Amino acid sequence: MTRPRVPRRVVVAVALATVGLCIVVFGAVAVRGAMLDRSDTASGPTGGLRRSDTSTSAATSAPDVNPTSTGVPTTSTSSSPSSSAPPSSSAPPSSSAPTAAPAPAPGGALAGVVIVVDPGHNGANGSHGSEINRQVDAGGFRKACNTTGTAGGDYSEARFNWETAQLLVAELRARGATVITTRDSNDGWGPCVDERGLTAARAHAALLISIHADGSSAGNHGFHVISPTRVSGYTKATVEPSRRLATHVRDALVGAGFSPSNYIGSGGLDQRGDLGTLNRAGVPAVIVECGNMRNAADLAQLRSPDAQSRLARAFADAAAVFVDAG
What we know:
By secondary structure, this protein is an alpha/beta fold. The protein contains 9 helices and 10 strands. The protein has a 6-stranded mixed beta sheet, with helices on both faces. A two-stranded antiparallel ribbon has the order 2-3.
């Protein structure tokens, strides 16, 4: 059977149509594949990250460099706002940190200067008779370890000495001094007079100030400052600088409104060779009898917080002048 002849135009048209259809099909497949590839990069199950995921990860993985549980001041390391409480500007106080003995102020007038403050006697000396009556070396001779001190009514000298000493310690430290005290409370006994002086010697202190009050006849009043006399083997090197220190203390007290003694020494100054604290100090040292506790006017002044503050400032002023003068 003879097939009919197909015109050439029809064959060409069919061929072109077939090619076009193939192009369309292959194009659609390619577009679909490209779309699938892009989707997997953004959020596919194999771990691809979105841009927002990158930001979230960086924020949540940043180390907590200032944990507040350590007590270290917290400082924000990011400029982005946080929903947590703002960081503390200072560390919380530690329960183990000292509170009664602040550090010397840097750069003060007495910076680097070691000063010993001796609050005379002690609050419980009276109930430790055997201890305070023990004999000690007071400078080439034997003397009782300590005494109870005097009193004005119910106000003891030991208490006055302690209260004023605490003000002086604070004043000296505020000026940069390193301060050592011979006792740390007013409810114990001692130390003995030799140990009080030796505290300054062992520390190579610039000076020692020992705070006391006198117990004389009621008509006597005013302060006096005691420095050591020459005691062989003990005070040769300290007599003159102690006298200068005593003069500075006297002048500062007069400038602060206190009256020199009308019954002992001369112009508020006295020298003695029988005081173990001065003899054993090995550095310039003075004992200040700040007033007579058996004189009503002196006692009222000694009990006054204002007078105690003025005493402390005067002692600190005198120490600064003495150190500055060399």
